[in-house]
Write a structure and sequence with these properties.
4 domains; Thrombin, subunit H; alpha+beta; Pdz3 Domain
Amino acid sequence: MRSIRFPALSLLAALALSALPALATEVPSPERSILRVNVTNQPHNFALPWQKRQPGSKQGLGALLDGQRVLVTAELIQDSSYLEFEVASSGKKLTAQVATVDYEANLAVLTPKEAPEDFFDGLVPFPLSMTPPKKGDRFEVWQFESNGAPVTSDIAFETARLGRYFLDGSYFLQFDANGAVNYREGSFTLPVIQNGHLTGMLLSYDSNDQVATILPFPIIKAFLDDAADGQYAGFPSFGIKFSPTLDDQLRAYLKLGDQTGGVMVTGVMPETSAAQAGLKEGDVLLEIGGYKLDARGNYQDSTWGLLAMGHLVKGAHTVGTELPMKIIRDGQPVDLTLKLARKEPGDSLVDPYVFDRGPRYLILGGLVFSELTRTYLEAFGNEWRDRAPFDLVYAAQNPDKFARDGRKKLVFLAGAVPSQSTMGYEGVRGAFVEKVNGQVINDIKDLSTALAHPVDGLHKIEIDEVPYILYVDAALATEDNQTFLPQRYRINELQRLE
């Protein structure tokens, strides 16, 4: 056989050719860069706080990041009891755990709970996009068929704006994109890709208008940077309510003169960045961080165009940043410094959300006391504002009106389980607890402490509604707690104070 001789390759060419297969394996693809995330969750029952609801399951898709981290939305993993990674093409699985979660930003990072061994072999992490898209730029939404085959949907970037992610009252930067997206496997957490980079996570899709709402890479980057040192601080809280100043008579009343923009502060929440900066109700906010606000509260962002001022606090800057503010107070210009801080949800008089733990409560002989949370109210269904007790709804929407020195939470009587010690009180519910056995009640722990000291064998419970005072026989209540409630209603956990 005659041999054929090829010309010798230069060293540079040989090295280039040898590198080609290795480089090819580093390109992200649906099969190698997104994982199925299987979730078993079991939320607590806030209406019957000693119980949990039936377990359920969800499946979403997570974006693989470096360091064997997987990015998902927080909504996917709320109240989870078991998490699992799955490679769509092979079905290989690995138990996972939550490393960092932020329900307000709707982001979570998951990591392996057990030794991964060869689970991540051949998988390619995403680089995060760093280039702001222009109108018309193409995005890809990646997902899988039920058999593991990848599916790609092509959409076009339209605009950036502030919008609600997951929780009411929590607004962040989001992308809107146009195009058809047909859901396959998983209804949560579809990664959105631009030029091989992770540019966001799909939050929702309107099939009628074919508009996709995307949690974008600037918020993802801020979340990941914050979590990198293991001490997650979260996004800052501004803490104001405001009204536009479009009305000429209002502007005259506020003595704005020839000012063309600004918004009127109508409320300042305690222990927030705004409160610490000295903002007051009636102030007119003109500038934040050198950006002028128009009469609707928008500013001209150098990257994203016209945006609501909330992005200057949640997204553009981090906790600890100091921003100059210009205001008008009583017709006079005033300069303030806004030092961005975060108010944790648990520091609020009424928790705006509660996930991954049960409600705090205490049962006395069948009387069920709890701390008011928005999650409790939402147990009344989508129409909770109309169906839940009016006083509780009002308090949740106007917590400042119920604040007092020392009060940490609003403890209320959620209802009464029929027992010998609650006779006559079965219809009392939704009333706030003011004092028990002479002690002012500022949270559920105060209630527990007060109940350790009955007066003349009775518990005296003072509430803010008729009949205003409840008397409970201490001995009967103890008997009901120890015997009747466990046997009759299978209530064995009589309190949760943490």
